[in-house]
Amino acid sequence: MPAVLHLLRFHPRRTCCAWGDIVTASAQVGPSPSGGGPTASPDLDDLTASIGDRIRAERLHRGWSQSQLGTRAGLTKKHVGAIEAGHTALPVVRLAQVCHGLGMPMSDLLSDRWVMPERKAPRVLTSRQVQILAEARTGAPFSVIAVRVGMPRESVSARMSEVYRLLDVAHLPYGRREAAIRAAEERGLLEPAVLDDAA
Known about the structure:
With 199 residues, the protein is mainly alpha-helical. It has helices spanning 3-8, 44-61, 66-73, 77-85, 92-102, 106-110, 127-136, 142-149, 153-166, 176-186; strands spanning 13-18, 21-26.
């Protein structure tokens, strides 16, 4: 049985009779490494951290931000970060959500044969795409952005569609502009907006 799955197994209770009373004790199913009796429980903190490391590696391999994985898995960016850092309990339901978001079976993520994937190189936007995205951050419509950057409106729209695809937000039914801006900021492709302290 794979090591991680081995650590996640249920530990059913066995019962025995002693002086007419029922006594229960934890017992591990299957042989122990030493050859006899129950084994010690695994360190659940280490196990959770190990699974979180695998999730982070799979996410980075796909070139996704925590927000993008969260969107695909139905979780918040904060929750994905906590799972990856091993700072939260990881019920099977949450693990299934994350695996669905990653597009991989849970058994593959937990397998002994799992291998650390190579990190995907972050996609780089052209300077023109960055300029258009920076203007889009103001909330201006494409017609206004087109005037500001000196391009036809159709070209601005086409460039933004490319940006959505490159930043893996084209699949979103709405909010693509905001998601693209967040993704570009998280990847360091666009300087974060500076808030006006005077306001």
